[in-house]
Automatic annotation (TrEMBL):
One of its GO terms (molecular function) is protein serine/threonine kinase activity. Its main location: membrane. It comes from Thlaspi arvense. The lineage of its organism: Eukaryota, Viridiplantae, Streptophyta, Embryophyta, Tracheophyta. Pfam families: LRR_1 (PF00560), LRR_14 (PF23598), LRR_8 (PF13855), LRRNT_2 (PF08263). Belongs to the RLP family. This is non-specific serine/threonine protein kinase. The chain crosses the membrane at residues 640-663. Coiled coil: none annotated. It comes from the Eukaryota.
Amino acid sequence: MKLSLSLAFSALVLLEVSTVVFAQARLSNETDMKALLEFKSQVAENKREVLASWNNTSPLCDWVGVTCGRKQERVISLDLGGFKLSGAISPSIGNLSFLRLLNLADNSFGDTIPREVGLLFRLQYLNMSHNLLEGRIPTSLLNCSRLSTLDLSSNHLGHGVPSELGSLSKLAVLSLDRNNLTGRFPASLGNLTSLRKLDFAYNLMEGEIPDDVARLTQVVFFQISENSFSGVFPPALYNISSLEYLALAGNSFSGELKAGFGDLLPNLRELILGVNRFTGAIPITLGNISNLERFHISTNNLTGSIPSSFGKLRNLRELGIGLNSLGTNSFSDLEFIGALANCTQLAFLDAGYNRLQGELPASLANLSTKLTSLSLGGNRISGTIPRDIGNLISLQELGLEANLLTGELPVLDLYSNGISGELPSYFDKMTQLHKIHLNSNSFHGRIPKSIGRCRNLLDLWIDTNRLNGTIPREILQIPSLAYIDLSSNLLSGTLPEEVGKLELLVGLGVSNNKLSGHIPQTLGGCLSMEFLFLQGNSFDGAFPDISRLVSLANVDISNNNLSGHIPQYLANFTVLRNLNLSMNNFEGRVPTTGVFRNATEVSVFGNKNLCGGIREMQLKPCIVHASPSPRKPLSLRKKIASGVGIGVASLLLIIFVASLCWFKKRSKKKKKKNASGDDEEGGGGSNVVDEWLRLVLQVGIRCSEEYPRDRMGVAEALRELISVRSKFFSSKTTNTELSPRDAMQSSPQEWMLDADMHTVG
């Protein structure tokens, strides 16, 4: 009996405890639900659709982005990364007291980070990167003592880095890069002895790096690039032998690097020190960092030789040492190139714009077949290009410009040198090339068809040489081409129609050659074109239809033999700023709208049959012709009227012809009387007769027009003839000759224009 009572009592107690726990859990669950619904209310209304499951009817733990604990139905994870949400982050987020993970990255949240985030004392992971957050980093984060990852990168956060972050002893990742943070590097961060990654790049921080950083002995990734930090290379960093990635580029660090650099930091994989003020020599011990893959120290003030010890770095992929003062004014300056032949993974080499001297070694052709970019320009390198450089089958960019190279080019790509000879025929071995810049040299011979095998080519610049022959159709079938410049050579033949296949072509230059024939109509298919230079050739025929090339900004087709009318659609090209049509055989009216409104942007001189245009072009006026319109058959009345008009005109002409005979007879008598006069006077009478006859015939023709609307009336004809009579037969006029000065004032072209204008009237 006692046993039964005891069991019953125990069951009752257990039931009561379960009821209380369930009630508390439900109450806590409701707290989380309320907090999240409040969070949702602060999300921009047009972005809430993705949170449609967040409502009072759906179980909390089934909401999108929400994860609950197993024992208690409390929210332990809120992962909304990449949901494209916007709006503000609600302070209610601080009520999710069991939260361990909060990921709001890759959204568009604005406003500030609510200080209530500091209430999440269980939080271990906080990521609000790639948003639009501004204001300060809340100091309340110091209460999140379990935090191991804090990522607030790529926002608009300002002010300084809170020193309170130094109390987060479990922090392993601290990413605050790409913000507007100012101030100094907090010394308190030296307390973060568990830290493995620190990234403050692309901010506005300044000052020196404190020695406290030396205590970050677990750090693997340390990046503070693109700030305004100064001082010598931070001595504290030499103590962090665990470093694998170190980036200090884009600051104002100065001084020399320690000679034992490579022995102090032996685990480095990437070392980025470019764009600073470092001086002295490159430490030879860098060759001891066996795992080094990337080393960039371009744009500094380094001197001395380039260590051949780089050749020991079998994993080296990138070596950037350009824009320094490296070199010893000796022929040994380029010995490092031979050593780098051992670096079989090398893909990028930049030693350009230093003070390197000596002949370009043949070992250049022995570099890694993975090399895509090679720059040695801006030095004092002499000699010739190695014949076997074609072994570099992955090469995309080769820069050897502004050196002292001579001789024939056995293979490839150098501008502004004095290289001569023919272009090589084996470009087909270098199919990964993106740019060929061989302009401004002395190459001769034909353009190799093998260039057409470079199917990834973007730029082909071989202008300003002495190349001859025709343009190979093969090079106009490279679909990736954006710029072609073959100008200032001796090329002949036509411009191949294949040019129309280059839909990505932005610029085409074939000016100042010996090209002829029609400009192909297919040119109108180059829909990306912005620059077109065809001047200085012998192209003929009409202007091609390029009405779809609405992106054209600069067009020069001057000094050719083109004919026909100037297309009106050119006036509709809104970005066209320079148009040169001069020295051709264009005819007809010049438009007056669009680019043609500005005489400084359009040139049409040397086309003698053009007319119209704006006043500044100083072209002759256009002769206006009445455009014929459909006519109805003439009625009987109109035919009779027409016959009467023609008869009157004929009668008038007979009368005036008789007068003409009398006038000529009178002139002969006068000439005999003035036999002693000069020839000039006699000639003047003849001119007067010709002018008189022209005016009479003009009246007669206008009276004889077929259609009444074009025909001069009888009354008007009489007035015109009386006017002519008064001009030439007035009894008060004793001298009917025109003076030479008067004759010069009216050119034959002006007479034609006047006659035609009267006809229209």
